[in-house]
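Sample pair:
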Amino acid sequence: MDFGFIRVASAVPVVKVADCEYNIEGIYHHAVEAYRQGAAVIAFPELCVTGYTCGDLISDGLLVGKAERSVAGLLEKTSGLDIIIVVGVPVRYNAGLYNCAAVLHRGNILGIVPKTHIPNYEEFYERRWFTSGTALESGAETEYCGRRRIPFGTRLLFGEDGVKIAVEICEDLWVPSPPSSAHAMAGANIIANLSASDELVGKNDYLRSLISQQSARTVSCYLYASAGFGESTTDVVFAGNGIIAENGRIEVSAPRFGYGGSLTMFDTDFQSLNHLRGKLGTFGPEAASGSYRFIEVPIKRAVMPYKRFFDPRPFIPRSEEDKNVRCQEIFNIQVMGLAKRLAHTGSKNAVVGVSGGLDSTLALLVTAGAFDRLGLDRKGITAVTMPGFGTTGRTYGNAVNLIDALGATLREIDIRPVCEQHFRDIGLDPSDRGAAFENSQARERTQILMDIANMEGGLVVGTGDLSELALGWATYNGDHMSMYGVNSSVPKTLVKYLVEWAAETADFARAEKWLRDIVDTPISPELLPPDGHGGILQCTEELVGPYQLHDFFLYNFIRFGMRPAKIFHIARSAFEGKFADEEIKKWLAVFFRRFFSQQFKRSAMPDGPKVGTVSLSPRGDWRMPSDASGRIWIEEVENL
């Protein structure tokens, strides 16, 4: 099955200035190694056949001719390699000399792409030698290396259906409107940049930001290869940057200032890139300006083991250095969302049901933050703890102590008597621990919160999170309902991460002890009586599955539109050594069954702030009929 991964490579060979035969050997060596490791595309630096720093020698007819003959030799040597090779070479066309990228495959030249923007810097006065490719006529062709009618121009795309490769050269990236922007609008999802960018203090950070931003704007894999060791150091030094970015994130990069060459590889997911483009709606044939010529060439797919990282916690920042910034940002979104709703309704009071679990803890923290932002006294937060049949001493104690530490107003209402009366009213045997026994407690708690809010002129702040909404792990018109759901787009793994972060902040220092214990408490709705030792009997993750898996499934299904087989495929890599294949398959089936059967709850979910790229709000993020069939998704899981 084609899972949509293509292995791309950025190569930086050691060069000798004006020694084409030496340089071709280095190029060939890297091409063979990349092919051996399964790469489908490899990009080399700008003018790597001759060396970029030739000065006036670059326009010498002898050197230009030697470069052409050397490329012809490379074609012959690589004729048996199923890999697209993009090399930098000077090419004479009519009366002009062009700084070009020659695109080679199996002994053929697919096309030649000249540089569009020719720099005029003191150290790189390329206009002295080169002509811009801008003025070339559409459909221009040339003869090169004994091959005739080779496509020659700036608007060339290479590939096959779903995969299109385009090329730009060095300075093209640095201008206000890079050619790659137009290439992407014409369908290119892999952009190769052949570069020779010298090193200056602080320049590398700016370069990396350019590459990451351009890959984000174009929703593409951006493949950057820049000149390295061997180029002349008469006035400048080249560090040999090999960088590969995908949709705004630099995924891999070569060590800089290496004495030898480098080969950097990454498996890009073109299916996910295309899915994201489809959701944006700004990419498509009608969006491209000018005519493009498409050169069809088969592109092989990458197979496991993949050269990319599949994050087992996609909702969590990868770097601990980003923790405070990211968590503060998410928390502020939640706080401002609730603050706006309180201000709009004129509410000076809020009501939160606090169980001593993760979700209600985060909701209470957010409510405290909103009150602080609005300059309201936290005593206006009525935090209600409602012990039921499954409440344990640990969660009850954490709830009470947390409320006190945050300065909210504590109300305790035991729901057991009213639930027992309700059981008698409806004729339910209390020993029947089925859905009615459990859900009646959730609905009773919601009724209490709503009525208190009416009495105090306040809002009920919802506690349910994104993971529970995805799985339908909520009681309809029970904990499913509120007047504003601050956690509605925060998945369970992120809820835990945020509470951990809150425990480390000065704002909630008084609550640190209780926050840390809440993080360590097993996740449970606590609707069934405790075990014989007073411990939690009903562990959610034993019943519905590990939230780490479900959040992984949810992220890749909603964000990238991955089919079940692909999710399973990459989950095996992401959770290798933690979950066996059969476990992943089991919970993946649970995820899709519950996701499709529980849409009716999401169709009636309350308002709440969107904090990330994945949300299930029926008002804008996820529109799905409540009675849509999940048959084909479930069958694919069963057939894995």
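The chain has a mean pLDDT of 93.
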